[in-house]
Design a protein that fits this description.
Blueprint: H1 2-30
């Protein structure tokens, strides 16, 4: 059950959060 729940939606959520964090860090670094 855990792996199944972590499969699609979980990975997408983690990837989206990582992309948002990376985007914010890159903007702060550039600025």
């Amino acid at each position: 059950p855990f792996k199944a729940s972590l499969n699609r939606q979980g990975l997408d959520h983690i990837v989206n959060r990582l992309q948002l964090q990376l985007g914010c860090e890159v903007r702060n670094f550039i600025n």
